[in-house]
Amino acid sequence: MAQLVKMIVNELNQPPFNLNLTSVTFNALHPPQLLQLLSDVLCEIESKNRVDISDEPVDALALRLLTSLQIFKFKPETEDPNDFREGLISGRPEKINPILNWLLQRREELKKRAYLSRYLVKIDIAPEMRSDSDVLDLYEQYEFLIEEFKQRHKQFEASQIVNDTVIDLRKDLQSMEDDREVLIRRIERTQRKVEGVVNYNQLLSVAKKLRAEKEKNREFQAQKEDQKSYLGHLESRRQRLINQLTEVRKTKANSSGKMLLQRAEDAIRVNQYMINEKLNKETQLVTANIALMEKMLAAPNPTSADLQIVIQKSDDFRSKIAYLTEKRALQNDPIEDGMALYRQQSLITSRKKEACAERLNDLTQEMNTLEAQLQEKKEQLGGQSETALTSEQFKTYVSDLRVKSNVYKQRRAELNDLKAEYGILSRTLEILRAQEGGLTENLDRIETQQGVKGFRETRDLLEKISDEKANTDEEKGRTLEEMSNLVRILNSKISEKKVLLAPLLRELRPLRQTYQESLPEYEAKKREYEAQVQLIENTITSIANVKSGLENEIVTLEERCRQLEADIKENETYLQRATDEMKLYVSGVQQQQTERGKSVRDQLQQKIAEQEKLNAQLRQDQRQLKDNLPRMEEQMKYWEKLEKIFRVKILCQEKQKLQEGTVRRERGRETLVLQ
Question: How far apart are CA 109 and CA 268, in angstroms?
Fold first, then answer.
């Protein structure tokens, strides 16, 4: 997972995203942010404007993401579509990260697929709309334009491939021509330099023989290394065959007819279990799921009320199951029931058996996958079998690898020797440079005394010129023949390329003309196709809007109808009560009043009389309170004055007791202690 996150972060930090993320910041993203990132990547691949998922409904977001992944032919790791859909919408990293990695690794390929899907994915039309002749004609024309677009796109791709091939060949041809001109100039310059060399032909023949001998020596060394590598390969193969023979002999010695029969019987039993039990259960489960899906597709769209009913039933069933499970657990006493232990062991054994079957199935699938990969590798190697190890191609590869390895080791040893020698020479050079100063001064003094100042510099210059001339002569003899051979090789290659290029150019001319002629027609057909698509989309949009308006009107009328039905029921109830009340008073039968109780009018009159009596009593109490209010206020003042008098008396008494002695209060008594 860490490697996967690292790859995703590297891709997102590059153009056109440039997010400047790290592994830590990417792992810290919340599920909505991961969903927004996935939506941005899909919009960039499909060349669409960025969509803010916070303003998009969940159903529309799920439909858009799943449609894009279906167009790109993304295959999720999980086999459960509901689990994948829930994980995608909830923004779980274990679902989002593989999708991001898959999209970013194939971005250019998916851009092309998104472009083609824009014109090749057919528009879904409801079956009831296909009965319209105009719509049917438009749809047939739409399908014809799609097929024509496919043909035009194939022709365009073919012309692009041919054009790229021609451009590459022209570049190669131009580079070869440039190399040829450079070599011709170098040969002419070299020939002018070696015209005055003594024994030129003899030196040239000797150089040719030396080069030929060196080439033969290299070929012999390569053949020697090939033989050594081939011998080592044969030795390893012999050892492998000996080991295989030893294992076969051991297996043959340890096996018998009974053991082989036992193995065959075990394999038969395993296969019978897989077919009769496991595959049968899986088939039944898949059949039940398909039947459930078909039932759900055939059923009408559920409303919120239907969902509430289903949820309520589900809760009821869960409670019943829990109750029955608890009841069964109480009834089945493991101590009294002697078969409980055996049932438990049987259940454990069956679970282990199912786990082993699942493991066997996984291993079988893995083995099939590996065998398919092995077969694919064999086909890539040219359909060769195990004898490919001894083929000429493998020998050539091994010999080249061996030669390169030996050359690498030799060069490495030479490099180490040169490094050691460089260190020694560097130290020697430092010493010589230290001694050079004194020697140079002595030589300058001696040259000045002898009257030949500058003799040493002139001698060094002449020696340098002589060495350069000798090196030039040697290089002339060595490179002249090589240049001639290289020019001949280049001339032959140029001729071959011209021969190969001639038929392609002849094929390209009519194709280019055809392309130029068909390009305006292609553009016109494309514009016509886009216009037809836009017309169909507008028609579908208008029909969908009309349908939505009618559905909303139907819902409004149904709600109004239910409201009116409720009002009718309520009015019927009031009407029934009024009818009963009228019967009580119109009939004038006292028996009905006795049987059905008092009428509503009598009850209301009785309540009114009681309230009037209560109101009269309250008014009488109010008048009494108003009459007694002055007397009660005066009496209240008397009581307040009396309370003040008693408080003053108590205070005076306490002061008197404190002056005369000490007052002790305990257990409800007061004791005065005199001093």
Answer: 47
